[in-house]
Amino acid sequence: MPMPCAACCHDPDIMMVGEVRDLETAELAIRTSLTGHLIFSTLHTNDSPSGATRLLDIGIEPYLVASSVNAFISQRLVRVICPFCKQERKDKDLLPAVFKDMKIFYGAGCDNCKRIGYKERTAIYEILYVDEPVREMILNKASASQIKKKAQEAGFKTLREAGIEKVKAGVTTPEEVLRVAEMQD
Question: Which of 106, 133, 141, 185 counts the most CB atoms within 10 A of its CB?
């Protein structure tokens, strides 16, 4: 296999910025994205709508956030119910109302999962696309809750909703979703 030439290796189209924590790093990522590069980075927030407000709080101008960001993605890992000891749960008394009418499963614990009831992990995630309505809200310095509400009107699915879908599919338990996602949507 031929070795790549030095010129193409030093001019990447896609770059990763480890974490945006401060104005200097955020400005670097934004400026690089404005030159046509696709930038991936992490930003510590509770949900994806908070990504926009976090960049504004760091000190990035609203027009730069609105013009350079394509999407904010938030994810959490939930444990997967062990397939070897998976059983239907009958007692739902202590669960939030959203889970009462669905078939719920749990892992009873076995040798395959070391008596934990879970084996492996899977992601639940939400994706906030920075479309025209969201872009306008960023330009007007809307709050994360205002952005979230507007996005939900357009079909945005929250972490909680993604988690509920995993519970409905029998992949994980309500407790796992409650552990990682806010239930006050």
Answer: 106
pTM of the predicted model over 0.70: yes
H-helix or E-strand spanning residue 178: helix 174-180
- Using DSSP's 3-state secondary structure scheme, residue 91 falls into coil
Read off the pLDDT of residues 153-172 as tens digits, 9 standing for 90 and up: 999 999 999 999 999 999 99
Three-state SS for 130?
Answer: coil
DSSP three-state, residue 51: helix
Task: Please choose, from the candidates 38, 32, 30, 39, the residue with its C-alpha nearest in 3D space to the C-alpha of residue 59.
Answer: 30
What tokens appear for 139 in the block?
């330009």
Q: Nearest Cα to 57, choosing from 17, 18, 23, 19?
A: 23
pLDDT in tens, 88-102: 999 888 888 999 899
Going by C-alpha positions, the residue among 124, 102, 121, 96 that lies closest to residue 180 is 124
Report the alpha-carbon distance of residue 32 to residue 89 in Å, rounded: 51
pLDDT band at 116 (very low <50, low <70, confident <90, very high): very high
The answer for residues whose C-beta is within 8 angstroms of residue 185's C-beta and 6 or more apart is 158, 160, 161
